[in-house]
């Protein structure tokens, strides 16, 4: 294992310097160490976990809402793409001298694209929520489900027969599994995840998630269903809970590691001597398969009445052979659908098609330009011919991400709603998340320092992120992740101590408000100032916040409060004064100068009900409003 990992590190460092795709480096790592290590059973076993976690994540990201939005493209597009590719490749296989069942099986192998590669490219290029991204996702979802069906059909293609007397037993097992899945999805899993989340124990939540994944996979294997389908079902069980985004954050590192081992294991299976001996046929087949996949997907796009430009982009993204084809190929070997020699050639072709995808994607604009010169293809540069169901959806952008839904977060949410500022929120307290979701607040459960959680919050298109509730270490991680995903995002942070300001600024925050100088009004006015909102409107919002509960306003220094707020409002201003000796309210000339006391800050408490007999104590801070002229007269009249 040490040899494998250090070889991968060295190869990937070289590839990173050369700016070559990581995936190709992993393939080469496998090919290199295949000549050093004889027993590869351990790496093969571990690589299977990569496929399990990949299917688990696909299940996690699958939702009825997402599927409903793209069901037309997932069903019609997926059926067309898989069917056309399978038919064309079947004819190619027959021309190569393969038996009909082997040719059909080869057609299935080639028709499935790489979910891992395509999704990574779309994330890197920010295409996930684009038109081509949504249609591509729909086809990939269909392919992923179709893979499971083909795995079940493979024994039949291999000549196995269905024993009729076993059908009742299979039906009973499937019904029992369906009942267990329903009970788990409806009651057990949501309650278990909720209780685990309430503890805020990361290890407990992560282990429970892994148990759900592995436990479901083990349960399905008991009735003869492969681990891939079991992992997909496990993901589905969690996908419709509010914990799916946080679960994705925990599982993603495992999936990345094991998928890397999966790609290395593919390289291990390559017979380099056989590969070089058949390099000519491998290159020819690679070109043919890329063209067939491209053509099949392009025809699919045209049948869906997509603009030519979009269809070409999708065809390029889906032109490679996917990782699940290797899983299928191994199944085919068991049933005699592939020989060892042909399997080695297939491996070489698959690796080349997968490796070519990043380069072909970069050439997309040039390929579209070539097609635009052909009179048959009407390339719509402005994309004015979009289908209505695609054109209407407008993903949220230029929004505020609110990390933490404490007292300040709730007050800021009200203010954002008043000004119609788009926002998305996240919190680690499942009870708070449930309560706020019931009120219609767009909030998810999760830790904002997780990349997957921030991606769900659309951090790449957000304008601001306000971190108002987190541990100090979590704050630094959230800043780092947000800044890495969106270098231009404006970051405002609340930190507990004044001493942390410099470190938080160095971590990447644009503004830092320590807890000793904390106020929802101050943070809100800064956000509104960033959005260039009218100060009169801000003043009205501040009054509304104050009428709800003004105890969010605290200050160590009355001068600091006055200095900022005097620059924020034009007519009616808010100011403060510190009490240095015990005094009665009548000892201060508030009424004489037409000033209104809004609250009194005493230690860590805020008093908002002030009557005519109120007694001030030493070190109280009095907050009041009035015209600047009257405030100046007030300060001239009092004695310190």
Beta-strand residue fraction: 5-15%
Number of strands: 12
- The rounded Rg comes to 31 Å
- Class from helix and strand fractions: alpha/beta
Strand order of the largest sheet: 3-2-1-4-5-6
Low-confidence stretches: 546-570
Helix tally?
Answer: 27
Report, as a whole number of angstroms, the end-to-end distance.
Answer: 74 Å
Overall, the morphology is: elongated
Integer average pLDDT: 78
**Main sheet: strands, sense, barrel:** 6 strands, parallel
Please bin the fraction of helical residues.
Answer: 55-70%
Quick overview:
The protein has 640 residues and is α/β, with parallel strands linked by helices.
Q: Could you explain how this protein is built, in words?
A:
The chain has 640 residues and is of the alpha/beta class. The chain has helices at 2-17, 22-33, 41-61, 64-95, 100-111, 115-124, 131-157, 167-199, 202-221, 227-239, 244-269, 272-277, 279-303, 308-317, 324-334, 340-362, 364-372, 388-391, 407-418, 430-438, 451-456, 472-485, 501-507, 520-530, 535-548, 558-565, 628-637; strands spanning 400-403, 423-427, 443-445, 464-467, 490-495, 511-514, 572-578, 583-584, 596-602, 605-607, 615-616, 621-627. The strands form three sheets. A six-stranded parallel β-sheet has the order 3-2-1-4-5-6, with helices on both faces. α3 runs parallel beside α10 (227-239) and α5 (100-111) packs antiparallel against α7. The chain starts with a helix and ends with a helix.
């Amino acid at each position: 294992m040490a040899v494998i990992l250090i070889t991968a590190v060295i190869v990937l460092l070289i590839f990173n310097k050369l700016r070559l795709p990581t995936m190709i480096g992993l393939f080469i790592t496998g090919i290199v160490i295949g000549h050093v290590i004889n027993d590869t059973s351990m790496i093969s076993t571990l690589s299977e976990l990569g496929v399990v976690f990949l299917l688990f994540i696909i299940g996690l990201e699958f939702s009825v809402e997402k599927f409903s939005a793209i069901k037309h493209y997932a069903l019609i597009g997926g059926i067309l793409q898989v069917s056309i590719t399978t038919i064309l490749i079947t004819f190619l296989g027959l021309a190569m001298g393969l038996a009909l069942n082997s040719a059909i099986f080869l057609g299935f192998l080639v028709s499935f694209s790489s979910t891992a590669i395509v999704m990574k490219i779309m994330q890197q290029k920010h295409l996930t929520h684009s038109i081509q991204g949504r249609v591509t996702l729909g086809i990939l979802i269909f392919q992923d489900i179709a893979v499971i069906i083909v795995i079940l059909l493979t024994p039949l293609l291999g000549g196995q027969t269905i024993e009729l007397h076993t059908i009742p037993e299979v039906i009973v097992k499937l019904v029992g599994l369906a009942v267990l899945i329903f009970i788990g999805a409806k009651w057990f899993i949501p309650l278990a995840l909720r209780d685990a989340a309430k503890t805020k124990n990361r290890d407990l939540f992560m282990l429970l998630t892994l148990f759900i994944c592995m436990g479901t996979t083990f349960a399905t294997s008991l009735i003869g269903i492969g681990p891939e389908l079991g992992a997909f079902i496990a993901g589905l069980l969690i996908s419709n809970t509010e914990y799916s985004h946080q679960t994705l954050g925990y599982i993603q590192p495992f999936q990345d590691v094991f998928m890397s081992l999966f790609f290395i294991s593919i390289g291990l299976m390559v017979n380099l001597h056989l590969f070089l001996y058949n390099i000519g046929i491998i290159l020819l087949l690679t070109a043919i398969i890329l063209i067939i996949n491209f053509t099949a997907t392009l025809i699919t796009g045209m049948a869906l009445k997509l603009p030519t430009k979009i269809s070409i982009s999708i065809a390029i993204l889906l032109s490679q052979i996917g990782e699940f084809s290797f899983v299928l190929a191994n199944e085919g070997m068991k049933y005699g659908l592939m020989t060892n020699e042909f399997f080695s050639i297939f491996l070489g072709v698959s690796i080349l098609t997968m490796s070519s995808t990043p380069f072909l994607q970069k050439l997309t604009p040039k390929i579209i330009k070539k097609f635009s010169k052909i009179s048959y293809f009407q390339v719509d540069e402005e994309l004015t011919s979009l289908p209505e169901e695609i054109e209407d959806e407008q993903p949220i952008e230029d929004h505020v991400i609110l990390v933490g839904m404490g007292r300040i977060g709730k007050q800021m949410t009200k203010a954002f709603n008043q000004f119609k500022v788009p926002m998305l929120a996240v919190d680690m307290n499942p009870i708070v998340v449930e309560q706020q979701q019931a009120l219609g607040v767009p909030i998810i459960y999760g830790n904002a320092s997780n990349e997957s959680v921030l991606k769900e919050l659309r951090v790449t298109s957000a304008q601001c992120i306000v971190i108002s509730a987190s541990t100090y270490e979590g704050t630094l991680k959230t800043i780092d992740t947000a800044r890495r995903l969106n270098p231009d995002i404006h970051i405002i942070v609340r930190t507990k101590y004044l001493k942390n300001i410099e470190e938080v600024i160095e971590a990447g925050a644009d503004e830092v408000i320590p807890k000793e100088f904390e106020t929802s009004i101050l943070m809100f006015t800064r956000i509104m100032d960033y959005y260039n909102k009218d100060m009169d409107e801000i003043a009205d919002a501040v009054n509304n916040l104050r009428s709800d509960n003004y105890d969010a306003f605290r200050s160590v220094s009355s001068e600091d409060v006055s200095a900022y707020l005097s620059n924020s409002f034009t007519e009616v201003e808010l100011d403060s004064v510190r009490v240095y000796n015990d005094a009665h309210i009548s000892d201060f000339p508030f009424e004489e100068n037409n000033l209104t006391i809004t609250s009194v800050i005493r230690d860590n408490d805020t008093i908002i009900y002030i009557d005519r007999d109120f007694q001030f104590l030493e070190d109280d801070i009095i907050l009041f409003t009035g015209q600047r002229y009257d405030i100046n007269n007030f300060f001239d009249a009092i004695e310190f």
